[in-house]
Amino acid sequence: MNQLIVNPSALIFALALVALAFLISLKEKIGLQKDLVVGVIRAVIQLTIVGYVLTYIISVNRIWLTLLMVAIIVFNAAWNARGRARGIPHAFVISLLAITVATGVTIGLLLLAKAIAFVPSQIVPISGMIASNAMVAIGLAYRSLNGQFHDKRQELLERLALGANRYQTAINVVREAIRTGMSPTIDSAKTVGIVSLPGMMSGLIFAGVDPTKAIMYQIMVTFMLMAATSIGSTIACYLAYPQFFNANMQLRTIQH
Amino acid sequence: MAETIFDIQDVGLTVSHQTLLSHISFTVAPGEFVTITGPSGSGKSTLLLLLATLLTPTEGQIIFAGKPQQDYEKTVYRRLVSYCYQQPSLFGNTVADNLAFPFQIRQKKVNHDRMVAALAEVNLPADMLKKHITELSGGEKQRVALIRNLIFTPKVLLLDEITTGLDAVTKDTVHHVMANFNKQGITIITVTHDESELAAADRLINIVGGRMEVTA
Ligand SMILES: Nc1ncnc2c1ncn2[C@@H]1O[C@H](COP(=O)(O)OP(=O)(O)OP(=O)(O)O)[C@@H](O)[C@H]1O
Ligand SMILES: [Mg+2]
Fold it and tell me: Which residue ranges traverse the bilayer (chain A) (predicted)?
């Protein structure tokens, strides 16, 4: 099955598409030219490196190397999520824990169900998919927590004044933040196949895999991402909300 | 029972190099009605927030019923010393959500009759419970917020300009509620600019520029 013909020269032509985006940004004064260039350069470098790394990892097929690769992915995802936490204390540790558990539990269940096998060619890309979705969910949840603790400050103060504990004060905010974190996954589950043809499924079909197989994989991925984003954002929110209070059970002003 | 319910000992608060309050010392006897006044920005609300443990003094200490504030569990303390914000805001969707909250945080079953009785005390009808919080007038909001503090009777009530902006009749109702609670032995500390309230005050504390001004 070698219908796939992306060669370097084809990629050079694809750069024309970026040039188009660049021109639009320039002409419409959107000011994204620098980000576009940085994005293109980073994508090319990162993907080239990871391509060779993956090839190596898959060819040697060692457990420790596979786990190391997963650990690196999870670490990067946590680091990235921390970046969206805008000053929430301990955000890195919280994100690391949340993404590790989300990835671990989901992959563990898939392995138990024998839906996937413990081989690098399956574990690494699936971990990447899970960790990146958990990362986005957690980032959104953090943003929602920050926004709500800011916007609903007076209401939260009133609850504290009435003698509520941290949990009783913040529970509504926490629930809303978890909802916000999960909403892209749920929305995309609702529209999968009718609005979006997700990357993995399209990629498999593109590469010549039988569409029914590709679709089955996509169904599995959809379920797995629901689990991963709910686990990830729940853990992150439950660990993050107490950070908005100080030791005297007062609201902290988080420095952005 | 302790002789004093509050013993405020040389209390000060400095926030980011700005001294908001300094050298505040006074005692309050159980059941007393204390009125605090002073110019805008002088630190009156800040003082009540310190009494409520919603701010923590950077100087001195506050003894409540014989024990320093920090020896109390915060939730327990704040249920005993109930603070009503200047310009309080309601939360949730309906008035009922607000009055149910004090029950919920105590893990008690929400008592509908008690909510209705509390509303009646401030001259609000029972069907107010179902009203959405955005449909209330300023004065109605203020009264709902007040009974949120009162539905479980505290030991001390800290009331921050709660009659500001109320018409004469409603103001009278609120005065009645305060007087009733005070008669039951509840200590009340209020902040006010209101002439009539100042004239009626038993004990007046004047805060000017973050310090106590001794009045004759
Ligand atoms: N968290 C804070 N950080 C820094 N300054 C504050 C803070 N809270 C209040 N202030 C300042 O402290 C001073 C006293 O404020 P406070 O609210 O206690 O005044 P007030 O006497 O209640 O005034 P008013 O009669 O207008 O309600 C004001 O100058 C205010 O700007
Ligand atoms: Mg004030």
Answer: 6-24, 36-57, 63-79, 91-117, 123-142, 191-209, 215-241
Write the pLDDT tens digit of every residue in A20-53. Answer: 988 998 898 888 888 889 989 999 999 999 899 9
Which amino acid, residue A169?
T
User: Which B residues in the span 64-83 are in contact with A, Cβ-Cβ below 8 Å?
Assistant: 74-79, 82-83
Contacts 24+ apart (CB under 8 A), A120-125: A120/A54, A120/A57, A120/A58, A120/A61, A120/A65, A120/A66, A120/A69, A121/A58, A123/A66, A123/A70, A124/A54, A124/A57, A124/A58, A124/A66, A124/A69, A124/A70, A124/A73
* Ligand number, closest to the Cα atom of B41: 1
pLDDT of A111 reads 95
Is B105 within 8 Å of A249 when comparing Cβ atoms? no
Residue A189 lies in a domain: yes
The answer, for A253 touching chain B at a CB cutoff of 8 Å, is no
Q: Which residues from chain B sit within 8 angstroms of residue A247, using beta carbons?
A: none
Quick one: which of B4, B5, B154 has its CA closest to B80?
Answer: B154
Q: Assign A14 a pLDDT band (cuts: 50, 70, 90).
A: confident
**In chain A, what residues touch B91 (CB-CB under 8 Å)?**
152, 155, 158-159
A254 within a domain of the structure (yes/no) = no
Q: Is residue A167 part of a domain?
A: yes
Q: Return d(Cα B122, Cα B95) in angstroms, integer.
A: 14
Interchain contact, B53 vs A158, CB within 8 Å: no
Question: Is B38 an 8 Å CB contact of chain A?
Answer: no
> Is the distance from the beta carbon of residue B170 to the nearest atom of ligand 1 less than 6 Å?
no
Tell me if B82 and A155 make a contact (CB, 8 A cut-off). no
The ipTM assigned to this model is: 0.94
What is the block-wise mean pLDDT of chain B (216 residues), using blocks of 10 residues? 86 95 96 96 97 97 96 97 92 96 97 96 95 93 94 96 90 92 96 91 94 75
Q: Is the CB of A9 inside 8 Å of chain B's CB atoms?
A: no
B150 CA to middle of ligand 1, Å?
A: 25
- List the shell of residues around ion ligand 2, using CB closer than 5 Å: B 45, 86
Identity of the residue numbered A243: Q
Domain range holding B27?
Answer: 6-91+156-215
CA of B90 to the centre of ligand 1 (A): 22
Residue A205's nearest CA partner among A10, A50, A7, A4 is A4
The stretch A114-136 carries a mean pLDDT of 93
> Would you tell me how many other CB atoms lie within 10 Å of the CB of residue A49?
10
Q: Are residues A56 and A75 in the same domain?
A: no
Give the separation between CA A83 and CA A91, rounded to whole angstroms.
8
What is the span of the domain harbouring residue A30?
Answer: 1-60
